[in-house]
Amino acid sequence: MNTRTQKTDFTPVDQDLYAKAFQLLDPDPTPEPATPAALAALAAPAQVPLTTAAPVRLTGPVEKTLTDALTFLDTHGWARHSLVHPEGARCSIGALRAAAGSRNTAYRDAGNLLLDEARRQHGKKWQTIPSWNDTHTGAQVRSVWEAAIRRAHHLNI
Questions:
Q1: Nearest-5° angle of CA 93, CA 82, CA 66?
Q2: Do 117 and 94 meet the contact criterion of CB atoms below 8 Å apart?
Q3: DSSP string of the chain, one letter each residue
């Protein structure tokens, strides 16, 4: 079967022009002799890591504030009935203030999340972080802090 047609719309290629274009792209088409080091590099398999690095997850400002505040409590101690104890321990709100550095958005959002978690665990009657902090044990307070940090992490805030 013959599939050629008599008339085409294609312009014939000028072979000299075609060769000249490739010469401009690759002026020296003859390869240089390979050195033993180059041959060894070609023969050796490429080193590909078997594992890839896990994606980096950035900590949100609320999670960071809560984590830093809990670290502050672990380092300096937890207090009741006092924003700052004379020996350096702080209540929950004092630790939040120390971690945030100022009453910024992260400080307010971290406090709201902490109070919300306190209400989840200990009832809806708590109006402020200090009132909740002062009426619970250290273990109960820590449980709320840890749950609030997990929620902030899960919410990516």
A1: 20
A2: no
A3: -----S--SPPPP-HHHHHHHHHHH-S--SPPPPPHHHHHHHHSPP---SS-PPPP-PPPHHHHHHHHHHHHHHHH-B-SS-SB-TTS-B-HHHHHHHHHSSS-HHHHHHHHHHHHHHHHHH-TT--SHHHHHHTS-HHHHHHHHHHHHHHHHHHT-
Q: What is the CA radius of gyration of the chain?
A: 35
Span between the terminal Cα atoms of the chain, in Å:
70
pLDDT tens string 10-57: 566 677 775 776 666 666 655 566 666 665 655 656 565 666 666 666
How far is 73 from 92, CA to CA, in rounded Å?
8
83-109 pLDDT, tens digit per residue, is 899 999 999 999 999 999 988 999 999
